[in-house]
Amino acid sequence: MSKGKQQEALVRYWLFKAEESLASARSELEAGRLAFAVNRMYYAVFYLVTAALANKGEKLGKHSAVRASFHKNFVRTGVVDKAYGRLYDELFHARHQGDYIPMTEFDEMVVRQQLADTEEFVNKFSREIVKS
């Protein structure tokens, strides 16, 4: 398989993972498992951004490196609205709290809004990745 085809396959893989995580976030939210919904939303965004970076030829593994590269290459340059940069940051911190800080609780209305914002971001940004 050529390098270009490998890159395309990798981008498609990460986009699939983003969609899969988003579907899981919806299910977790409807089941009332807010911390798990937040976790899955974060991963939907993480995988989406990983796809965008792979599309540019970047391969980053650490969450902090992916986040920093997203801000550098997409938010600061105006390719992505700053609101999505803030959403990524919110989910990054919320996921960390939900996964590692005992007895963290989330507000259902906030999580529902984050899900709507995450769905919008995944839908818009994945189309941009596929176009480029």
What is the CATH C level class, in words?
A: Mainly Alpha
Radius of gyration: 15 Å
The coarse silhouette is globular
For the biggest sheet, the summary is:
none
For the record, give the distance between the C-alpha atoms at the N and C termini, rounded to a whole number: 20 Å
Uncertain runs are none
Strand residue content = under 5%
Q: What does this protein look like?
A:
The protein has helices at residues 3-30, 34-55, 63-75, 82-100, 108-131. The chain has 132 residues and is mainly α. It has a single domain, classed as Four Helix Bundle (Hemerythrin (Met), subunit A) (Up-down Bundle). 34% of the residues are buried.
Summarize the structure.
The protein has helices spanning 3-30, 34-55, 63-75, 82-100, 108-131. The protein is mostly helical and 132 residues long.
Q: What attributes characterize this protein structure?
A:
Four Helix Bundle (Hemerythrin (Met), subunit A), 5 helices, globular, mainly alpha, about 130 residues
How would you summarize the topology of this molecule?
Elements: H1 3-30, H2 34-55, H3 63-75, H4 82-100, H5 108-131
